[in-house]
Amino acid sequence: SFFWPTGLTYLRLAPGSAIAAMEARMEAYEEELREEQYATQFDVRLERLSDIRLVGGYDAPGTLPQVRAFGAIAVFILLLACINFMNLATARGAQRAKEVGVRKSLGARRGQVAGQFLGEALLMSGLALVLAIGLAQAALPWFNGVAAKELTLGYGTLGFWAALVGSVALTGLLAGSYPALVLSRFQPAAVLKGTVSSGQAGARLRQGLVVFQFTVSVALLIATAVAWQQLTFMREANLGFDDEQVVMLQGTGLEGTWGEDGTPSRYPILKDRLETLPMVQAVAETGTVPGVSDGGSYTTEVRGTPIGRDGTPVDFVDEDYFDLLGIESIAGRTFGEAYAADVGGMETVTYDDNDFVTVRHVDRGFVVNESFARELIGAPAAGEELTEDQLEEALGIPLRFYVTENDIVYNDYRGTVVGVVPDVHGASLRRAIRPRAYQLDRTPNDTYFLLSRVLVKLQPGPADAALAAIEDVWKTVAPERPFAPEFLDERVEALYRSEARMSEVIGVFALLAVVVACLGLFGLASYTAERRRKEIGVRKVLGASVPGLVVLLAKDFLLLVALASLLAAPLAWWAMRGWLADFAYRIDRGPGLFIAAISLALVVALATVAGQSCRAARLDPIKSLRHE
Fold first, then answer.
1. Residues linked to residue 283 through DSSP beta bridges, in sequence order
2. Strand partners, 351
3. What is the 3-state secondary structure of 556-605?
4. Which of the 8 DSSP states describes residue 107?
5. pLDDT by residue (tens digit) across 422-479?
6. Which of 104, 536, 539, 621 has CB 3.0 to 4.6 Å from 544, enough for a Cys bridge?
7. How far is CA 363 from CA 261, 441, 477, in A?
8. 3-state secondary structure labels for all residues of 36-103
9. Measuring CA to CA, which residue among 353, 348, 362 is closest to residue 259?
10. What's the whole-model pTM score?
11. Average pLDDT for residues 16-40, to the nearest whole number?
């Protein structure tokens, strides 16, 4: 059956084979074997094994989007550093004007002067490489811990060094090109007369670069804040069940088989023995991991009529499942020892042209969630709270869940609704809660359909002794099966581990971007204060106060940072809207996060500029006026 693939198929293609041609042949083969209505539902495709890690595969998304995001952020941070170099080099260009004038008057060509400045930038970039390798090596253990990787620096590979040399060359040329072009065009006569200045055009360019720097920095700060708040929301969200102190054990192999050579299920023995332990509160089993997986999806009929949507997830549980997880019925009842009839009966169905035999399970009891109950009674999908009388209208409605292909039914469960429970998050918060059903994971022969997990609810207190006692019981009941306990709350939290890691790394990148931007702002503030030293002295002689002078020197930079923040806010809003779209349940991006990030940027910028401004404003005006 193409509907129920229990494993992945691996093919080693012959050398030179074209994947597209192979996929076309597989599509044709599928259409030949399957009826048209089924063949058109699925696409057969091949995935390169070497691509699954990054691109993603059958059962997991790839990490390529994260790699691209980190790469883009790294490029932006490097660009911020290049902007700092350009800003400071061109700002101090007037101080090197005489050097350029003397060299040109002695016969130096413009290309030679530009080459000198480019060489200085390349030398600076090369020295930075040495420091960068040391910092990267020192930070690698931390990064591996955050990213859960075992990355190493490839000192022994040619590609590693080629990439570094290329990065140094590109960075040096990018950072040094504009200063080289500007400074090399100074005319010797004008320079030696002292009539060269940086000009309004250069000042506007520096201002524009500062705005760009802080736009990137503030956008990263906002993105970090949004991601962190979304992760906090997911960690603290009410999933609809109690996952504290719940240990999960692998139940596969304990189901038992029926027939002539059938074996009894070992789960009842395991459950009875675990329940005798004083540190165990309750034991149940399920076919899925609560809060992690919805379970298999089945074609659904209501009162004999197929529903007009995709199939329904159906979970196989036992009588104690709802009590263990603290899920109470809101209409009717859940399963229990007093309702053995919920197991129903069994019938066999044979086919004239096929040896396959279908086992049909009839007269079973189903528990449905509130979303499914709304569908069954035709109530609004969301928003309006249903009364108990409305929910009870769903009780007794006939349901059928099955899987079929080419007129063969592979699983067939028929029965009626006996109870309704609240909606719980069966899977990640990335996905909306789906209409869902539950049925007993047991046949009339006392074997089990899909005993995937055994849930053990522990009493409050340390878990080490309880796990040791549970392992002793496990080894007596299933000695050939591995004992691999997991805590349910940790498994649920692991769903969002990749986002948590990404948020932490982006947070560090955002901090680094702010530091780099502030270093440039610090340098420009220092240079501006130095150039306006005589002006500050005159203003102080005429009665200007230190706070007034600090405001005078700092306001222009703060206006630039404020402008950058206004530009960053919509950019960050647009970017995070796309990221949050992957979550069915997400935070509301109110103005608070944006205001907090912008305020932080303004405070950091003010602290950066105010120090230099205050230092300049407090200088003795006599010394300032004497200064050459």
1. 456
2. 354
3. HHHHHHHHHHHHHHHHHHHHHHHHHCCCCCCCCCCHHHHHHHHHHHHHHH
4. T
5. 999 988 888 889 999 999 998 888 888 888 899 999 999 888 999 999 999 999 999 9
6. 539
7. 27, 14, 32
8. HHHHCCCCCCCCCHHHHHHHECCCCECCHHHHHHHHHHHHHHHHHHHHHHHHHHHHCHHHHHHHHHHH
9. 348
10. 0.75
11. 83
Q: Let me know: does 295 contact 282? Beta carbons within 8 Å.
A: no
Tokens standing for residue 245: 């102190």
**What 3-state class would DSSP assign to 276?**
coil
Only one residue has tokens 């500029």, namely: 609
List the one residue out of 89, 179, 167 whose CA is nearest residue 126: 167
Identify the sign of the CA torsion 615, 619, 624, 628: negative
- Tokens standing for 179? 């200063």
Whose structure tokens read 């004038």? 101
Residue 103's contacts (CB-CB under 8 Å, 6 or more residues apart) are 112, 113
What pLDDT is stored for residue 623 in this prediction? 62
Radius of gyration in angstroms for the set of CA atoms belonging to the chain, rounded to a whole number: 35
Q: Integer distance in angstroms from the first to the last C-alpha of the chain?
A: 89
Q: How many CB atoms lie within 10 A of CB 7?
A: 5
Q: Distance between CA atoms of 614 and 107, rounded to whole angstroms?
A: 44
CA distance 147 to 416: 48
Average pLDDT, rounded, for the chain: 83
At 190 the pLDDT is 62
Exposure pattern of 483-510 as b/e (b: 16+ CB <10 Å)?
eebebbbebbeebbeebbbbbbbbbebb
Q: Which residue(s) pair with 313 in the sheet? A: 297
Residue 347 backbone dihedrals phi, psi, to 5 degrees: -130, 155
Structure tokens at 596: 């907090």
CB 146 within 8 A of CB 501: yes
Helix axis angle for 199-236 and 497-531, nearest 10°, is 150
> Hey, what are 390's tokens?
């409305």
Average pLDDT over residues 276-281: 94
pLDDT tens, residue by residue, 69-101: 888 888 888 888 888 888 777 766 656 666 777
The Cα 46–Cα 373 span in angstroms is: 40
Under 8 Å between Cβ of 394 and 373: yes
